[in-house]
């Protein structure tokens, strides 16, 4: 049965986030809020947890997992970033953007693109996510929480609890999320390529 943590969206209780972080550290799966929607997350370097996360989400190993990072310094440990890429990412973070970048060796191969060796990373603008990442001490592997057969992310923590309490180990309830996907920007080529226009303002980055 999942442990249910009801936290304040602006001033989340450290004691509750520490319990959620401990569950993740022990190999658990958690449903957490972000600045775009609720997501399923697990420890980065736990193969069994990543496989369980994909089973719950109903996707195979070809499905990219995104790394949730606390800040740019953490992001730079997992992706190769040049000055041009850094300036664009800095102007957009924290925020609802996912960046496709060339992965470093710090990224487990199972989490990167099987042929291109790229990885999706983002720095979410959500207080609960930020505090949980700080408490956990490293990025989390994540995927948008979309129920099997559905196209829209789940946004009601009570419904998430009812549906997944026997499949995940923790649900962090901070109220409703915007329920709009991130904008996805591929930075691996000579010029940025918008893969998906989402909640993030592309015009603000000169990409609209």
Euclidean distance between termini CA atoms: 45 Å
Which overall shape is indicated by the principal axes computed on the Cα atoms?
globular
CATH arch. level architecture: Alpha-Beta Complex
Tally of distinct domains: 1
In the CATH scheme, what's the topology name? Answer: DHBP synthase
| Fraction of residues in H or I helices | 25-40%
Instruction: Evaluate the radius of gyration.
Output: 16 Å
Query: What is the structural class?
Result: alpha/beta
CATH superfamily annotation: DHBP synthase
The averaged pLDDT comes out at 92
CATH C-level category: Alpha Beta
Total number of helical segments? 6
Low-confidence residue ranges: none
β-strand number: 11
The biggest beta sheet is recorded as:
11 strands, mixed
User: What is the beta-strand fraction?
Assistant: 15-25%
Provide a descriptive summary of the structure in words.
By secondary structure, the chain is α/β, with parallel strands linked by helices. It has one domain: DHBP synthase. The protein is 26% helix and 22% strand. It contains 6 helices and 11 strands. The radius of gyration is 16 Å and the shape is globular.
Can you tag this structure with a few keywords?
208 residues; 11-stranded mixed β-sheet; single chain; DHBP synthase; alpha/beta
Provide a brief overview of the structure.
The chain has 208 residues and is of the alpha/beta class.
Give me the secondary-structure topology.
Layout: E1 3-6, H1 14-25, E2 30-32, E3 39-43, H2 47-57, E4 66-68, H3 72-75, E5 79-80, H4 83-92, E6 97-103, E7 118-122, H5 127-136, E8 140-144, H6 157-164, E9 170-173, E10 183-186, E11 193-196
